[in-house]
Each structure stands twice: as C-alpha cells, then as structure tokens.
Amino acid sequence: MVRTSCLWYVLLLGETAWGKVYFSETFDDSWANRWTLSTWKDSEKEKMGKWVLSSGRFFADSLEDRGLQTAEIMKFYGVSAAFEPFSNEGKELFIQYQAKYEKDLGCGGGYLKVGPKQEDLTSFGEPTPYHIMFGPDQCNADKRTHLIFSYRGKNYLKKSELPYKQEGEGVSHLYRLHLKPDNSVRVEVDGEQIYEGSLKDDWDMLPAKEIADPKDKKPEGWVDQEKIPDPSDAKPKDWATEAKIVDSAAKKPEEWDDDEDGEWEPPKIDNPAFKGEWSPRMIANPAYSGKWIARMIPNPDFVDNPDLYKYDNIGYVGFDVWQVKGGTIFDNIILTDSAAEADEFAKKWKVLREEEKAQIAKAEAAQQEAFEKAKAARAARAKAEEESGKKASRKASKAEAKSASEEL
Question: What intrachain disulfides are recorded (predicted)?
Fold first, then answer.
C-alpha cells in the first residue's frame, strides 16, 4: 500500500519522531491492484515467471506473513509498483525489504530496484533505467550483496563487493539501505551493519581528483631493476645441464642391418645427474634508484558534486530477476526518510524470523528423531533376522544329527 500521510503516528509519538513514508507494501489479496506484471520477456519461446502469494513453509501467521513469491523454475521475473514521484534532496532515504529463499537458488537474484517514473511498467525489465539496485545475488559459488547507483545515465557498481548474507533456507532476511545527504551510505542485513562509507570514495561516479602528470618522464639513467645476477657466482663444474644421455648399456640388436635400417644409434635415457638449467643467484642492484612514479597533479576533468546522493524523480520500485529454482518470497517493502518508520516495519521481520528459526529447529529435531527411530527399527530387524537364522541353523543341525543316527 502507498501511504502519503502519517498523521496517526504524529498524534501518537510527536512530529519529530516520525517522517514521511513514500511507499510501503506488505502484500495482501489486493496486491495485484497496486503492482504491474512485466511482459518484457514474453515471447513464443519463453514466458515470464508467475508470482503468487505465499507465507512459505515456516511462518508466524499464515495471512500476515504472506509475501510475493517466485513460483516457477528457470524463469525471468518482473513486477513493479508506481507511486507519486518524490525527491530525496536534503533528506535521508531508507530503502528496506525482506527476502526469504525457500530453497537454494543455484543461480538467481533477490535484489530490489528503485527508479524514475515510467510511462509503461509492463515493459519493466533489464533495459529499464533505475537509480538504485540493492540486494542479494548469486550464481553458484559467486555470491554478493549488490549495491549499484546510477549517475548521469550510467550504473556504477561498488568498487569492492559487499558480503553475501542470504544463507539459510526458509529464513527471512532484512535488507536496509540508508542514503544520507552528506553522500554517505550505510547497509544493514538482519540489523547488522555490513558497510558504511562514501559514494565519493567507494564508487567511481566522479573522476579522480589527481592524475599522473603525463608530462613527467622518467629521468635518463634511472635504474628500476631491483635485483641483478651476482657476477661473482659461477656454475659448478659438476653441474649437469643435459636432461638426456646415451644409454651406455644399450647394444645394437643382432638383426639390425645398417644397409637396410641405417646407422644404429643407441637410445637416450633420463640423466640421473641432471640439475636443470643453471642461473646465477640474484643480488640487490647497487645502482637501483627505486620504483619510478610520475608526480600527481590535479585532474583538469575533476568536478566535485556535493549532490551525488540526490535523485529528483523516484517513482517506482520493482523486482527484475532471473532465477533457476525460484521460491523466493519478498515482503514488507518500505521507502521512507525516517529510521523510526523503517524500524516499525522491521518489527514484523523480527517476530517472523524468531518463529521461522524455532519451527526450523523443531522440524530438524523431528527429522533427527525419525531418523533415529528408523535406524533402531533397522537394527531390530537385522537382529531378529540373525536370531531367526541361528534358530533355523540349530534346527537343521538337529535334523541332520537325527537323520545320521537313524541311518546307523
């Protein structure tokens, strides 16, 4: 649901405690009235994957804990929701949502896109421009938490990848991105900070402030070879450099005919004394000048931008992913300028996560108990079969003994 007014929060907690919610969604039976299914990959050969409401295998409340789930395998999925466009200028922006992998995806994404207003969201997909892409992504062992920002029409990945935190099937994870007007960024997963830094430092959105002076040249006579061969080092006289030698024990076969077979040459064998190619030891170069580096000068192309964080037209939120196995459940999405609003949504996740973990532990205990019972039953059957075999053997022995006695 889209909520443009938080008056009831203000009445309860005061105007300074709560901010503005630009968009929120908890997914109920009317979700399709607010979300647009994408058809950008629909064709004769393939169809977009289906979305369904599901609470998953483990939940606290079957209705309240329902989210939007990818319901098929080997599919592209696209769904998005529009809202009244807004700007985050001069404000903090919190983007938060839940993702639960019901099974290991193998390969697939679980990230959220937030972007500018679109005229037609039915075409929402990979080519659609976005401002921010945030959330888990994996392809087999290659795993990360994506965080991509768009700047002047180009998408910028973070210089170093954020850790992947989506381990644990059947457990909901909470993703929170906090973007501030000072261009700083904070990322939390499950309430734990996994990154805090700056758009200016950790994304290549701006040119470097300094560059190597192209006019600066390495001085003549500059020696940048750190090690040289030791001129006093000589190859030992007994150093064998031949890998193969003539087999002195070999004899020309009696049937060998030089006229017909040519001149006989004894075969070669591995040289047991071979030590490999000799090279003198390396020593420090007394003339070494050090590693030469051109001096740094101000980059003439650098123009600072104190508003890297700012997006003037934020108008949709959506999921555009490919999944091999499907089964991912997305829920409790919120875009707000208030940490208190985001925390309120996080309460739902905390309750759900504790129940999921408790039910998973219970299911694992029941599975272990069933395994132990089956193991005990197999052992009992094996023992009974062994005892039965022993009785049959004793009975047969008695019968043989009686038969032998009668023959006598």
Answer: 107-139
